[in-house]
């Protein structure tokens, strides 16, 4: 199973258009690599790919990745796009894929409803680009020979659909993880997760590789840095650090572990930071745009 990180950053990207934090300024100045919004491509043969989440940066991401280039006059190596939630950073890229070339959009009913409820997505012609609804816990072929299974992970409705009251640990069809199996290896892609429950630990125990929500280093990062007013958990994202953080909760997992969907405020973007050293010292990788791995 081959993976190509199309984008490692969380919503907004690195740098984010309106952010003058140290990371964003360093990315603008080229002192650290800039990064697109989160998206992961997966393939068995390196020719036919599935894209997990279509970020608003997908045009640039495809341009930068020869794997994603057309090999004929009007054509794409992308056979399917799978959506793990209805947030803008994961669906808006569909609008860039509207030029009458076939692929399949896979998502749960609830995530399909987000597309159906926003008529702008009708620009992606359903006659050419079928939308296939996937039930939880039901394997399907994401690509020929590559089976995927969606399962609920704790999360919330998309930011732009939040009401007055927001439940941040919903377990249903609005936020899902993806199990990928090729008959040889098993990988998981979970770019948004509010908390690692014991149930989730059990579900991913067989992982050979895990791409996991690395949005924030700690829960009050956006408040502390003056960039926001919400905690990570309020945003549906577990922090990396701390006793209930992802590193501690996933410490027993024997898999190649990679953080993806990393917010621009996160200190792990800085290669020389203590936080990056902590992450790598605990056996985790930090995803980078264009990075290819194989299991
Ligand atoms: C998130 O992951 O919390 C969302 O992408 C937020 C957003 O839509 O900007
Ligand atoms: Mn996001
Ligand atoms: Zn920033």
TrEMBL record:
<keyword id="KW-0813">Transport</keyword>
<dbReference type="GO" id="GO:0018189">
    <property type="term" value="P:pyrroloquinoline quinone biosynthetic process"/>
</dbReference>
<dbReference type="Pfam" id="PF12706">
    <property type="entry name" value="Lactamase_B_2"/>
</dbReference>
<comment type="pathway">
    <text>Cofactor biosynthesis; pyrroloquinoline quinone biosynthesis.</text>
</comment>
<feature type="domain" description="Metallo-beta-lactamase">
    <location>
        <begin position="49"/>
        <end position="261"/>
    </location>
</feature>
<comment type="similarity">
    <text>Belongs to the PqqB family.</text>
</comment>
<comment type="function">
    <text>May be involved in the transport of PQQ or its precursor to the periplasm.</text>
</comment>
<dbReference type="InterPro" id="IPR036866">
    <property type="entry name" value="RibonucZ/Hydroxyglut_hydro"/>
</dbReference>
<dbReference type="InterPro" id="IPR011842">
    <property type="entry name" value="PQQ_synth_PqqB"/>
</dbReference>
<protein>
    <recommendedName>
        <fullName>Coenzyme PQQ synthesis protein B</fullName>
    </recommendedName>
</protein>
<keyword id="KW-0884">PQQ biosynthesis</keyword>
<dbReference type="InterPro" id="IPR001279">
    <property type="entry name" value="Metallo-B-lactamas"/>
</dbReference>
């Amino acid at each position: 199973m081959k993976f190509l990180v199309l984008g490692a950053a969380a919503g907004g990207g690195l740098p984010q258009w309106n952010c003058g934090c140290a990371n964003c300024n360093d990315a603008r100045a080229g002192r650290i690599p800039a990064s697109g919004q989160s998206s992961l491509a997966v393939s068995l043969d390196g020719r036919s790919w599935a894209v997990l989440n279509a970020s608003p940066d997908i045009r640039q991401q495809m341009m930068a990745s020869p794997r994603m280039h057309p090999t004929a006059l009007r054509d794409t190596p992308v056979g399917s796009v799978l959506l793990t939630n209805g947030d803008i950073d994961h669906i808006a890229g569909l609008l860039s894929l509207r030029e009458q070339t076939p692929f399949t959009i896979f998502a749960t009913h609830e995530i399909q409803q987000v597309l159906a409820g926003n008529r702008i997505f009708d620009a992606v012609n359903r006659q050419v680009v079928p939308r296939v609804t996937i039930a939880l816990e039901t394997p399907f072929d994401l690509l020929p020979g590559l089976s995927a299974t969606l399962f609920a992970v704790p999360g919330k409705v998309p930011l732009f659909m939040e009401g007055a009251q927001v439940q941040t640990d919903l377990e249903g069809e609005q936020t899902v993880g993806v199990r990928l199996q090729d008959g040889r290896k098993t990988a998981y892609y979970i770019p948004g997760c509010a908390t690692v429950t014991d149930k989730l630990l059990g579900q991913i125990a067989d992982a050979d590789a895990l791409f996991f929500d690395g949005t924030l280093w700690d829960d009050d990062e956006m408040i502390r840095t003056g960039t926001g007013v919400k905690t990570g958990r309020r945003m549906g994202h577990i922090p990396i650090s701390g006793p209930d953080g992802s590193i501690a909760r996933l410490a027993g997992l024997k898999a190649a572990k990679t953080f993806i969907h990393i917010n621009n405020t996160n200190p792990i973007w800085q290669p020389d930071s203590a936080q990056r050293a902590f992450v790598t010292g605990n056996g985790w990788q930090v995803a980078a745009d264009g990075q290819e791995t194989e299991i």
